[in-house]
# Entry
Amino acid sequence: MSDIPPLQSFVVDALTDLGAVVSPGGSLVWVQAPESVQHDLEVPANFALTFDADRSREFEAELVAPGSYFLERLIAVIARRGQWDAARYEVSGTEWIPAALRESGLGPETGVRSHVDGIEDGLLWLFAFRVTLLSDEKRESFHLIAVSPSEQCAWPVDPSRPDPELIPNRSSGTFANLESGYRLAAETLRSTTSGEVDRFRARSLGLLEDEVRRIFGYFDRTIEELRESDPDGSQELLRAVMAERDRRLTEAVERFDPKAGASLCSIRAIHVPTARVRLEFPDRSGTDVPLDAWSGRLRGLVCSNCGGTDGPWRWSSPEGLRCATCAPSPAGSARPRGRPPSDTPRRGTRAGEASARSPRGSRARSRGASAGRRPP
Amino acid sequence: MSLPAREPPPSADASLSLRFDDSDRDLLARAFRSPGDGPRAWRLNGEAHRISLVDGFDRLLAWPVLHGVARYDHQVRTALRVLRDLRGRAILADEVGLGKTIEAGLVLKEYAVRGLIHRVLILTPAALTDQWREEMETKFALPFAVLRSIRDWDRKPFVIASMDTAKREPHRRAAQARPWDLIVVDEAHRLKNRFSLNWRFVAGLSKKYMLLLTATPVQNDMDELFNLVTLLKPGQLHTYDRFLERYVASPDRRVPMRVSELRGRLRDVMVRNRRGIAFTLPPRRVHSLAVRLSPAERRLYDDVTDFVRDAYWSASGRLPWTARLTLIVLQREIGSSTFAVAETLRRLTQSPLFRWDERERLEELRQDAAAITSNVKAGRLREFLKSVDEKVLIFTQYLRTLQYLQGVLEADGHRVAAYHGGLSPAAKDAAVRAFRGDADIFLSSEAGGEGRNLQFSRTVVNYDLPWNPLRIEQRIGRVHRLGQEREVHVVNVWAEDTVEANLMELLDRKIHMFELVVGELDLILGNLDERRSFEDLMMDIWVLRQAEDRRSALRRLGDSLVRARAQYEQVKDVNEAVLGGAEEAASA
# Structure
């Protein structure tokens, strides 16, 4: 799960976005609310906010803290807005291409040669999901999944990565591939969270197992004791005990039955310059791959060992192209994405992508020129 | 899922699949049909979701929004332990005065903040329903409603009901027909008998989480402990026969065996904080300022009392409930001050509750009250304050008395911070700040700073005495609480030959109430066989016409109180022997 954004800046930004005038004033924040905000948040035209519980009675300030009514209302209102956005990512020149290649572990120093066949306008989808695991406890996480509709591939993105400067693209319209993009994102989310979901399930069922065993043990033994103490005893009593057992078991199942749900929070369409790059490896093999300026991700490469599609990459002979996890150590330039050494300057536009692997075949291969013809 | 088979339910190859919300379809259909709200709104949407994520019970989220709840480590530890380790099913068995209600409120609030509870039922003794509602609302901002009618089971998701009401039809069926996310049972030692209606009622409720609150899980014998634990977690203490065989010394069922093993098993269901060194409160010293009323005050007191008795036993038959209540108020006010009673007398002269001849008497009483310009009790208080060189809390139940005292004390040069229910929250804060600052007297009505930390003061004056002893205890509790390091002085001002004198006789001389720890009185009063409230009992005695009848009724009530206290002491000893530190969280 990602870092949680600071509460105060979120609240100030959110109110401003809703059209309120927000003036910080020491421990209190003063708000002039337009009518829509007054209605939605159930506040007067002018009110004070505080993030400090001890100050909440000053000027009858609204306390903002987890569990406070104001914050719950604000979150509900904000979560109903901004559910989709279309934007354009612009970058000047072509310097981003060699930089992205270097960060992917395929810079010229690795012996891999590259040249750009052309730059075109590409489209990426970004789907935001909230995942909720529920039994007698609740665990939630937030996920961003990027989808390239042209290559029909998807990958998780770190939600806490800095939001690069995007230019609003306010034109509305429909996107024919939105539905299929969602399906791909959903599948990727399933795969990304499967470990967490399985662990949650195992823990919940373990607790249920203990509970069921204890309930059976108690009631069965109680029935035995009743029979031993009074062999001709009331059948009605025994039936009552059994009914109580069944009721307790049902209660236990309802309590520990694990559920895993995901809901789509928002969608973003990003138009982004995408380069078609020809990579030539030292063994003279080659492949054409797309590289977009927003994610800096080389799409269509496959690890010769694990079949994974997440870089960074390392080419070596005779192993061929491998992902950072499978590359023989020392990995050198092939560092897992999102975990650079602390002295490595990070580029704001593509920092911190989470690595995730989709388990595919283990056959060593480069998707190469077939990338564009890959079946969905 | 359906009912599990006898064998453990999970199968190794089964998996849990992420289920996508139906509303996703709707969003996909709407998306991009309009330009949207802009990139900032999109970013904020993500932040709103991330801020509101719930991730287990790694910490207590709700502290900042609680109001008037002092943060004590043992309560935080208890709440986290109940949430994490005991998974919401626990007996909260703290010794009295360590805040079981607060702990239950913390657990409740944490579940609520995480969206894990939507229907909650709190079961309490009838006398405590309003207190629970008030506490849940003011401290935890949880919108509980006290059950008033059968329809409330449907209409109110957060319900407080008296156990006696809820367990009987038609309420019983209504309560058991619904699934509850959380059940809280206060005074859970009333579930000691598994054949009782109480026990069977609670056992028949369908619930996910359950908290049982009692300082004394064992009342008479070990069976009660078994019954309580089995209600929560059947099998935790084995079957009944095995429990007796293993943990109970025969023939005396109060004596436990294999105590350490038993306590080990209890740790999985019970949290018991004890008063360790950190929780030893300094002693209380009680001072009685008894006064003899002036002739005019005496005459007025007796005349009001005569009126109350006459109206109470009115020849016109059974008195309406409202009139009876009015008479009780009148009698309590005259015990506070002539100023408190004067206003009520004025209103009653217009009241249709009374006959014209009664209203004439009331008018005479009003004139007598208005003619009295000072009270002997106030004079005694002023004398006492001359002998005190520190901050003092003075409590009175009535605003008119408070206003009178404020005038008198300010005229004497005291700096008075007045605090009462009519003040705005900000004005109340200002009053507390003033008392913390240069004010030397905090003059408070019954709303006296509930939950506020006033431990920097240590002298409490009861200018009048509420007939409900728990109210007196709450007043003292404002300064005699965790954090108080100095000896606490409790000063009671009362007049001879009044209800309050009787009250002092019972509470101070018979059961030494002022020396008890906060919470103990509750348990002692709970041991009284009487089904009526203590206030009603006092009134019943006071309205008896014959002095001898009053004396013997008072004696009987005194004897009952003494027995109730002895019973409580005995129970305390048994619990100490059985439970000791089933959980030693508080004393660390």
In short: Chain A has six helices and 13 strands. Chain A touches chain B through 106 residues (CB under 8 Å). The radius of gyration of chain A is 28 Å. Residues 283 and 318 of chain A are 9 Å apart (CA to CA).
